[in-house]
Amino acid sequence: METLQKNTQKEIGQFVAEDFRTAAIFSKYKIDFCCQGNRTVEEACDKKGIDSNTLIDELNQVLDSKGGETIDYKSWPLDLLAEYIEKKHHRYVEEKTPVLRQFLDKLCKVHGERHPELFKINELFVASSGELASHMKKEELILFPFIKKMVKAKLENSAVQSPQFGTVENPIAMMMEEHDNEGARFREIDALTNNYTPPADACNTYKVTFAMLEEFEKDLHLHIHLENNILFPEAIKLEQQFG
Fold first, then answer.
1. What is this structure's pTM?
2. What is the CA radius of gyration of the chain?
3. Where is 7: in which H helix or E strand?
4. Can you tell me the distance from the alpha carbon of 74 to that of 226, in angstroms, rounded to the nearest whole number?
């Protein structure tokens, strides 16, 4: 009972950082594990009206099962994690964005009259993709290079020059706020698409577009989780070591 209670006080982001398979449970209950991963299980359950014991039981089943390879991102050096996020998640956004924008434009032209919600979905995705492009550039040109510099300085036991932005916490706070905005946009897209369920009269392009949007959101959740729950807190801790 004590362990159960202790687990309800554990932050959602910690569960997912320790074993990414738990993300599926939080997603099932529509609990945001990436942008709002700093809430305890109890807080999230209270807000959603879910029995926290039921949720903990399901999480424990996942944690106790040996099946499914899970990548231990927490053990990665920070420079490697930053590089991975850039090469995997940033490139994914860059590759999928033009395709999705093209498909959504087409859907609006062909099906917009019967499904006016498509115009709002398109508007939200265009806004999100524009913000994400600018967000990723800030990470690639400012934040990630500084994280890599700190890792190198620690290995070489040398000093690290103070950045123009003062402390790493400043750009991190900005990035986290931008993550919140994209999380909110995709919650709206999720609601407008009825959980990415194509309507009965949907053509193949319609079905493919909704499937791609759902995959895009899942990738974004993992992308934000790796930054908010692992990379950013560890970068703050690393900076503190330089005094």
1. 0.85
2. 20
3. helix 2-8
4. 9
* CA nearest to 209, candidates 141, 121, 84: 121
pLDDT at site 26: 87
Distance, in Å, from the CA atom of 220 to the CA atom of 228, rounded to the nearest integer, reads 12
Which residues have a Cβ under 8 Å from the Cβ of 166 and sit 6 or more positions away?
none
**Helices within 49-90 (DSSP H only):** 52-64, 78-84
- At what angle are helices 204-225 and 91-111 packed, to 10 degrees? 150
- Planar angle of CA 198, 204, 207, nearest 5 degrees: 30
Tens digit of each residue's pLDDT (9 = 90 or more) over 65-82: 765 557 889 999 999 999
Q: Compare 80 and 26 and report the one with higher pLDDT.
A: 80
Angle made by CA atoms 228, 231, 232, in degrees to the nearest 5: 60
Closest Cα partner for 58 from 15, 13, 9?
15
pLDDT per residue as tens digits for the range 129-145: 999 999 999 999 999 99
Which one-letter DSSP state was computed for residue 193?
T
81: helix, strand or coil: helix
Q: Are 13 and 221 spatial neighbours (Cβ–Cβ below 8 Å)?
A: no
